[in-house]
From TrEMBL:
Name this polypeptide is given: Dibenzothiophene desulfurization enzyme C
Highest taxon in the source lineage: Eukaryota
Domain Acyl-CoA dehydrogenase/oxidase N-terminal: 51-147
Alphabetical UniProt keywords: Flavoprotein, Oxidoreductase
Gene that this sequence comes from: soxC
Organism: Lachnellula suecica
């Protein structure tokens, strides 16, 4: 017999009452790096930003496998992203940000993911959700939240889309109007980075309507309860477990893109193609950390093959080392060529996304056709990077025997 609705609710509630938080990693383990990044200051050129991302990737790669096994809540890793300045790469220079475009942001995500896929994913989610007000907020909200995030070096988590609020496993959060403020209630199976975030993006549907509302809230508050139940195979340090939202209060002035007098979506910010750019933007985030994971896997496998893989002893044309084996050379060459092509496609898609924001970030007057065309570039990149990343991360085991 199927469980009743009351039994389902009771079971979900018990999920949050029985868990204990994971141990957290200690930010002090990166003190030497924090100090160096602080002394060096923020990068000032595109290449310097990418070099900073490569440096963070190298730091993380040293013990990525061990940290994944330990599965500690990644406070140290987020602290490293903060001190490196990478959380600010897209932010306006006026408020202490890097002033770079999404094309650079995507490459930074990819670089970090080469060393640690989980932290590359966290960086990608932060960059997307930290710019939410730029896409769906009013000009005043865009300015206010960018200033707040940059000046405080905040890390942003989210209970939205694939990280929660519009995930198909869940209903939307319920939003009720209480005069000068809103109340968010509900539960999500997934959130990404929320446990270690400073601010969280909530999203839900206003009661009695079909209208969605995005809002930033402080993460550490009584109404946000994390289940600490993320124990996935892969990407374990993304802290993507369940979360309960109970009576979380949001002032109407923080309802992104809404007219607080009429209590209606502002057509100048929400009823236009520009407001839908969050979706293709985050899809390309996925493409780039997938690609970074594959590139990192190939780099690791190459070193392993050169130092540990034995030449095949039963071929009749025996080689002295695995790096002389025709099959091994063919596999690596094939993986390298396909990943290089995937990188070029991802970079082109990133340039398209960056160009859209550069041209229409102020006016928001992008046409439906232009929005559709950039989505096509993103979708193409997503298909290719997904296929190739899966092929390479599985295929390297064919050339890394003992």
């Amino acid at each position: 017999m199927a469980p009743s609705a009351a039994e389902v609710v009771a079971s979900a509630s018990s999920l949050f009452s029985k868990v204990t938080p994971n141990p957290t990693s200690d930010p002090a383990i990166y003190d030497t790096h924090h100090q160096k990044f602080t002394n060096d200051g923020l990068p000032t050129t595109t290449e310097a930003w990418l070099e900073r991302a490569r440096r963070v990737s190298e730091i993380l790669a040293v013990d990525a496998a061990a940290r994944d096994i330990e599965n500690k809540s990644p406070r140290a890793e987020v602290a490293l992203l903060k001190s490196s300045g990478l959380l600010k790469v897209l932010g306006p220079k006026a408020y202490g940000g890097g002033g770079q475009g999404w094309d650079v942001g995507y490459k930074a995500i990819r670089e970090v993911a080469k060393g640690d896929g989980s932290i590359g994913m966290l960086l990608g989610y932060h960059l997307l959700w930290s710019t939410t007000a730029n896409v769906v907020g009013t000009n005043e909200q865009k300015d206010r939240f960018q200033r707040t995030i940059m000046e405080n070096n905040y890390f942003i988590g989210a209970l939205t889309w694939s990280s929660g609020a519009v995930n198909p496993r869940d209903n939307d959060l319920k939003i009720t109007d209480h005069g000068d403020h809103l109340i968010f209630d509900g539960q999500k199976h997934f959130n990404t980075g929320g446990v270690v975030s400073d601010l969280t993006v909530l999203e839900g549907v206003l009661e009695g309507t079909e209208d969605h509302i995005f809002a930033f809230v402080t993460t550490q508050q009584e109404g946000i309860t994390f289940a600490h139940n993320w124990n996935n195979v892969g990407l374990r340090l993304t802290e993507s477990g369940s979360v309960k939202i109970s009576q979380v209060k949001v002032p109407w002035v923080n309802a992104l893109g809404w007219d607080i007098v009429s209590r209606t979506p502002n057509p100048a910010t929400l009823d236009i193609p520009f407001a839908t750019l969050l979706l293709p933007t985050i899809q390309l985030v996925f493409s780039n950390f997938y690609l970074g994971i594959a590139l990192g896997s190939l780099q690791f496998a190459t070193k392993y093959t050169a130092t540990s893989t034995r030449a095949w002893p039963f071929g009749g044309d025996n080689k002295t080392s695995a790096t002389e084996e025709f099959y091994v050379l063919e596999r690596y060459g094939n993986f390298f060529a396909h990943l290089r092509a995937a990188e070029v496609l991802a970079d082109r898609a990133g340039e398209e996304v960056a160009g859209i924001y550069a041209r229409y970030g102020e006016s928001r007057e992008i046409s439906e056709r232009e929005r559709g065309e950039v989505a096509e570039w993103v979708a193409s990149a997503k298909v290719v990077t997904t296929d190739e990343s899966l092929r390479v991360t599985a295929g390297v085991f064919e050339v890394t025997w003992k």
